[in-house]
């Protein structure tokens, strides 16, 4: 068990180094430099040249890379061109917003998807299964932005049940109960809508798992031991059917921090996804590079967590 | 359930039919069999002959929506046909143990093998967890597993095929059942392991005085272990006798063809005999006349009965149809004489 984890972590080191190099090259390839934004008709090209020299932009690429890496390790992601604040603090605020929204979304997704998947698998080809399949086709086929905009229009504008944008009302004081309630209230509609539309995979994996496992030999063995049907289902069929979902769970956890671009855009929710899109449209390169790096690291950690989770739940994965 | 009487299982007029495109077709057609204490009853036949159908009918594990079982399976005056599930669950694993063909597939990949055996004990005994572990280790010892304490915490994929089958056997005998049904227990194993597993089954049976139903297509296995043999073809029992009679005086054309297609180790140049054609599929099975007639076309139709019945040709030796009296192999006329002289 621990050997598996250790081996996986060791594999991650070269992956991280390659990731940081790719991100650095990407940043270098972007047009302009930190002083491009300061250039105006009155600026002196000599001053720019001097600043470039001072900030080490004329150094060889590898020197710049190691300096950048050193700063990274100290938590310094640079300054945002546009917002004129440290990128780290900019990202931190957005990450917190995204985390809570994503957490609510994930909880709702599983709360909807797992019962649906179990019901569809258990009642294969019966009316329960067929209605769930129809629901699945709809959520799979409808583009997310159409679904979100329709939801926003119906529940936000027309019915007025939910706020239509932002993460908190302006008239509440931080720290009060009303403040936390307002934050939750702002997250509800985007979370519910995202949960509804992202259930497809989980439902389908669970349904297929149950349908396949139901006829496995070891299920027949369990029955031949006189194990009651209810226990056969929960202990033997369901546990084996949850494996594919466990395989995605690591990425789901790290996905809590990267957020969803579409939902945050539609609901103007100040999270990581919106920050990413804003950085692109505003050409805020430092923020963009930092975000790409963070998303990359999150993916690697997500894969690591998935592997660890798999090795806990499936003994066949463990390295001896 | 009480455990008594020498007659363990009395199967009478068992019909098991599967639903295919709306219609039911008998996969086991009018089966009459008995299993006694201390007896190994072998059911032999090709794939699709209905032998596993009998096993699943006895233990009540079939798709209840698409299977129709009629007739009687009497166990201590209790009819297992149509028995309610909760009562059946008290019998399964406790009074009837089942051993399956593929030991890897028959074990839950996510559970320790020890826990899987202990699960049987959990549902049928009052033992606490510690006692169950002790009993499982004792069982592992009994089925000849090395280092049983260590084996308890292993997962199925960590064991060899032979060890896995020993786990499955330990599971089946955990509650000392009177009846053990072994459905092709050695088919998925290496030849050397096969012999060990068969020896184990025999020694378990001698110790526990249980009755074993051994389902196999392997006549070598039958010769080595069985006491009584029932030969099945296309859902029917075509011949039934003790093992000595089956091998020394087989009568039914199918039994004789099967034996004739066994390789003889003393005759290297001999070509293997092949039975023409294949077992008809469930849907296309002839429901009247002799079902084997199509595969011995050189025997005149008049030799077969219109509605083949089972005849007791000598005490304890049952044969279906009268065609055996005129049967001879196509390439061997001398055989005809042998049969006639008998």
Helix and strand run of chain B: EEEHEEHEHHHHEHEHEEHHEEH
Mean pLDDT rating of chain A: 83
- Oligomeric state of the chains in view: heterodimer
Briefly note the CATH topology name of chain A: MetI-like fold
Individual helix count of chain A? 14
Count of DSSP-assigned helices of chain B: 11
Uncertain ranges of chain A: none
CATH topology of the largest domain in chain B: Rossmann fold
| Sheet with most strands of chain B | 8 strands, mixed
Distance between the termini of chain A: 8 Å
Short account of what is shown:
The complex is a heterodimer of chains A (320) and B (342). Chain A is an all-alpha fold. In chain A, 73% of the residues lie in helices and 0% in strands.
Would you give an account of this structure?
The complex is a heterodimer of chains A (320) and B (342). Chain A has one domain: MetI-like (MetI-like fold), CATH 1.10.3720.10. The radius of gyration of chain A is 25 Å and the shape is globular. Chain A has helices at residues 2-29, 45-54, 61-73, 87-122, 127-141, 144-158, 177-197, 200-214, 217-224, 229-241, 243-258, 261-266, 272-281, 285-313. Chain A is built from 14 helices and no strands. Helix content of chain A is 73%, strand content 0%. Chain A has 320 residues and is an all-alpha fold. The mean pLDDT of chain A is 83. Chain B is of the alpha/beta class and 342 residues long. Chain B has 2 domains: 7-226, Rossmann fold (3-Layer(aba) Sandwich); 251-341, no CATH class. Chain B has helices spanning 51-59, 85-91, 113-124, 129-142, 148-152, 161-173, 191-208, 219-225, 243-248, 253-260, 334-341, and strands spanning 7-20, 23-36, 40-44, 67-75, 78-79, 96-99, 179-183, 211-216, 228-233, 236-242, 310-314, 317-320. An 8-stranded mixed β-sheet of chain B has the order 6-7-8-3-9-10-12-11, sandwiched between helices. In chain B, strands 2-1-4-5 form a 4-stranded antiparallel β-sheet. In chain B, a hairpin with a 2-residue loop joins β9 and β10 (236-242). The termini of chain B are far apart. The interface between A and B is medium-sized, with 21 and 32 residues.
């Amino acid at each position: 068990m621990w050997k598996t984890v250790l081996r996986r972590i060791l594999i991650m080191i070269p992956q991280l180094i390659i990731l940081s190099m790719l991100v650095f090259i990407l940043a270098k390839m972007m047009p302009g430099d930190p002083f491009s934004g300061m250039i105006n008709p009155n600026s002196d090209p000599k001053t720019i040249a001097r600043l470039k020299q001072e900030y080490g932009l004329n150094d060889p690429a590898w020197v710049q890379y190691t300096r950048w890496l050193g700063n990274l390790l100290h938590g310094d992601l640079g300054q945002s061109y546009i917002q004129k604040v440290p990128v780290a603090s900019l990202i931190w605020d957005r990450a917190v917003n995204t985390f809570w929204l994503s957490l609510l979304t994930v909880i709702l997704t599983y709360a909807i998807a797992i019962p649906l998947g179990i019901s569809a698998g258990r009642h294969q080809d019966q009316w329960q299964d067929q209605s769930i399949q129809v629901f699945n086709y709809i959520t799979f086929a409808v583009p997310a932005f159409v679904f979100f905009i329709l939801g926003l229009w119906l529940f936000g504008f027309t019915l007025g049940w939910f706020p239509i944008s932002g993460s908190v009302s302006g008239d509440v004081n931080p720290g009060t109960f009303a403040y936390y309630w307002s934050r939750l209230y702002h997250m509800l509609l985007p979370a519910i809508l995202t949960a509804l539309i992202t259930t497809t995979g989980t439902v389908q994996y669970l349904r297929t798992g149950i349908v396949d496992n139901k006829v496995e030999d070891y299920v027949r063995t369990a029955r031949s031991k006189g194990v009651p049907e209810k226990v056969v289902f929960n202990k033997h069929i369901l546990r084996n059917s949850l494996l594919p979902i466990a395989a995605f769970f690591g990425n789901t956890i790290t996905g809590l921090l990267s957020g969803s671009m579409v939902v945050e855009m539609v609901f103007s929710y100040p999270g990581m996804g919106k920050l990413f899109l804003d950085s692109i449209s505003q050409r805020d390169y430092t923020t963009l590079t930092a975000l790409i790096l963070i998303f990359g690291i999150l993916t690697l950690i997500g894969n690591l967590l998935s592997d660890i989770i798999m090795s806990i739940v499936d003994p066949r994965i463990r390295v001896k | 359930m009480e455990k008594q009487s020498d007659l363990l299982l009395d199967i009478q007029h068992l019909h098991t039919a599967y639903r295919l495109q709306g219609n039911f077709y008998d996969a086991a057609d009018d089966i009459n069999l008995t299993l006694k204490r201390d007896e190994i009853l072998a059911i032999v036949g090709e794939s699709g002959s209905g032998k596993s159908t009998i096993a699943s009918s006895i233990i009540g594990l079939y798709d209840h929506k698409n299977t129709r079982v009629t007739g009687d399976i009497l166990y201590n005056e209790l009819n297992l046909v149509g028995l309610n599930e909760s009562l059946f669950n008290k019998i399964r694993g406790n009074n009837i143990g089942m051993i399956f063909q593929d030991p890897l597939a028959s074990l839950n990949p996510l559970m320790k093998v020890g826990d899987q055996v202990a699960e049987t004990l959990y549902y049928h005994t009052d033992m606490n967890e510690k006692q169950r572990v002790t009993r499982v280790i004792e069982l592992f010892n009994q089925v000849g597993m090395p280092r049983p304490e260590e084996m308890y915490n292993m997962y199925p994929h960590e064991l060899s095929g032979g060890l896995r089958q020993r786990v499955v056997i330990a599971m089946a005998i955990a509650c000392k059942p009177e009846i053990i049904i072994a459905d092709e227990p050695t088919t998925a194993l290496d030849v050397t392991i096969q012999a060990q597993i068969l020896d184990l089954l025999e020694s378990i049976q001698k110790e526990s005085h249980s009755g074993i139903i051994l389902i196999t297509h392997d006549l070598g296995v039958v010769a080595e272990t069985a006491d009584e043999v029932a030969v099945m073809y296309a859902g029917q029992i075509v011949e039934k006798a003790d093992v000595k009679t089956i091998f020394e005086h087989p009568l039914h054309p199918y039994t004789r063809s099967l034996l004739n297609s066994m390789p003889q180790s003393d005759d290297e140049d001999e070509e293997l005999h092949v039975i023409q054609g294949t077992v008809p599929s469930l849907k296309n099975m002839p429901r009247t006349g002799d079902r084997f007639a199509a595969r011995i076309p050189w025997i005149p139709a008049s030799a077969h009965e219109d509605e083949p019945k089972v005849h007791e040709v000598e005490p304890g030796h049952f044969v279906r149809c009268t065609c055996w009296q005129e049967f001879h192999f196509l390439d061997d006329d001398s055989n005809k004489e042998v049969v006639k002289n008998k």
